[in-house]
Amino acid sequence: xxxxxxxxxxxxxxxxxxxxxxxxxxxxxxxxxxxxxxxxxxxxxxxxxxxxxxxxxxxxxxxxxxxxxxxxxxxxxxxxxxxxxxxxxxx
Length: 91
Fold this sequence. Notes:
Largest sheet: 2 strands, parallel
CATH architecture: Orthogonal Bundle
CATH topology: Arc Repressor Mutant, subunit A
CATH superfamily: Winged helix-like DNA-binding domain superfamily/Winged helix DNA-binding domain
Order of helices and strands: HEHHEH
Strand content: under 5%
Shape: globular
CATH class: Mainly Alpha
Radius of gyration: 12 Å
């Protein structure tokens, strides 16, 4: 699959693809993972612009306070919760 997005978005999406099923990371952890530790908000924006959900599993990225955050995929936050529960993530 050829992904289309900005250089930053592609970097974020590539990292998110490495999050194992049943696990979550925070936007901050993703920012640190892509070697851009102050970009948590930009990571959230890249997730919001992800047209490849759930193949690129942005549903596995949550807020630092444990809240689920948003979900740009079809079905919104309800779908994000459903996907996380199907992967046995306690939310």
